[in-house]
Records
---
Amino acid sequence: MKLPVHRWFRYTAGFSAEWVKSVIMEHKKADSMILDPFAGSGTTLIAANELNLPSVGYEKQYFVRRIAHNKLRYDVNIEHLKKLYKEIVNTSFSDFNFE
């Protein structure tokens, strides 16, 4: 729960990201890939990303799957998004061709 990405949605069936990382580190090999057949809110997939390991997860429940999908985007470059936002705000409608 140290990273904000793990705190924005409390998943009751969740577990510690630090514990997941320790288990991955204990058992990983040079060409490891993480498979999480019950991905839940994405804790294991996020841990794999933080360890620079490829991962694949599956989750049947649509809502929880959407949470995991969005949490996996936690490393978005905020400064880039701010720049894009400013460009949009500073663009007048006359710059667009609506035809």
---
Amino acid sequence: MSERALLHQVHLGKLAADICASAVSSVLLWYHALLLGVLVRLALPIAGSAIVLATFDAERLRATRRGRYVLAHMPAWCQAVRLAGDLLTALGAWWHRWAVIALGLIVIAAGWSHGALPRHRPASQST
């Protein structure tokens, strides 16, 4: 993934689009408006990405704490974990299961927390 594509994930506009899409979509899915719920969950983040990628200053964002964090701590597997958490929140809304929604939010938080994980140092490198 390009550095610019990675950086856009922590742009406030992109984060707002993703969070709003998830919240609105979850409400729609709760009421079993499947087509509209899925459309909101997919279209709003895609539109947010397109707008942010076309307009944001990558150099400026790279210099922020958020930018440095995402560049250092957002491997592809963390992004997959976040996506899995989003799927859980959607399913939890559809099934009317608050515990599944909460689990999804925990999984999303775990996907963002790679930088908080302890680093393993091989015994041969310890000082």
---
Amino acid sequence: MDLSGIREASRLIFVDELTGLYNRRFMRQYLRERLDQLTRERTSLAVIMLDLDGFKQINDTYGHLDGDLILKRLAELILASLPANAYAIRFAGDEFFAFLEGIDAARA
């Protein structure tokens, strides 16, 4: 059995095609599966939300290709800024989340 096709299908379900970050579907699954476990383990979870104000104007002024380049670069910066055990998510359009397990609010 060739598992590469299954792995690729799973990746496509949970990864944003443009940025390579996890997507909203992954976020829902992650929260469903991990929140209870983190609570039982008394492990903290920091949640960071990032929304680009006025991003529509960038797309309207410079075009969606340039807007996409900005979103890709932002995704790279987010990944480079997070610890290895964090999850970066493109929620929608210009909205991003990061989940940092074991990180308290002060360290986040």
---
Amino acid sequence: MVAAIAVTCLSSSMLAKETKEEIPIPIVLNSSNIPGNDGGPRSSVDLIRAYYDDDFSCVYATLSNAGVEVEVEFVNHTTNETDSYVIPGTGSSILPISGTSGYWTITFILADGSVYVGNFVI
């Protein structure tokens, strides 16, 4: 009987995965304050990957070697809504947000002072 429940849960999870919309969030280094840098954005594809999941109104973030802890800040520029979290610098984290429509910015602040930023619209 327990196995049947596990199979049912797995099937529901797989169905949800097929119907939800995932919005990738390109994350770039905000390098304007780094001496000797031209201020242009740099990709963080190897350090931070993130996407917004509209079924669960959350951002999934995967970090590799970003330090012990990372501050994460959200701003919805359309509604002025904000939220913040502290997450581990390695591994995956689920960051719930309201899901309110608008133009959002997510900012990752690493312990060494590096700032990575991404924008998305929901």
